[in-house]
Specification:
Blueprint lengths: L1 E6 L11 H7 L3 E12 L2 E12 L2 E11 L2 E3 L2 H13 L6 E7 L5 H18 L2 H8 L6
Antiparallel strand pairs: 1-6, 2-3, 3-4, 4-5, 4-6
Length: 139
């Protein structure tokens, strides 16, 4: 499953919601949360990986967030990016890219999610890809 959540204003009151908050709000149990690296043919992306479940349904999740044209993995990175934009008089937009699957085997799910994200990013024109993966925009 793929979900893209976009917000044109990423100030604190307007920011996207993180899966580790949304999943439990829907009744899921958050089993594990860990940082990871999504290695694709077009580059590496710092991601967060979650293992969630709702009864017998196990749903491993991989997600990453952008602030402006940067992928941010931690709250500190997010604040630094926001301050950098703010010092230049800009309010950054942001996006959360979430890939998940129903699979009791988290390692298998994360491998499949990596392949999916890689294929998705390779299929995009570079100027669109850069909005999702933080890669430098072509000139």
């Amino acid at each position: 499953m793929l979900a893209l959540a976009y917000g044109e204003d990423q100030r604190d009151s307007m920011q996207v919601h993180y899966p580790e908050v949304c999943y439990p709000a829907q009744g899921f149990t958050l089993q594990e949360k860990k940082p990871g690296i999504l290695t694709t043919e077009t580059g590496s992306i710092g991601v967060t990986r979650l293992m969630t479940n709702l009864g017998p349904r196990n749903e491993p999740v991989t997600y990453w967030k952008t602030v402006g044209d940067r992928v941010v993995q931690s709250g500190i990175q997010k604040k630094i990016a926001e301050m950098s934009y703010g010092l230049n008089g800009k309010i950054p937009d942001g996006m959360l890219v979430r890939v998940s699957s129903i699979d009791a085997n988290a390692a298998h799910a994360y491998e499949m999610q990596t392949r999916f994200a890689d294929q998705m990013l390779r299929a995009l024109k570079p100027e669109y890809r850069s909005r999702l993966d933080g890669s430098p925009q072509p000139n």
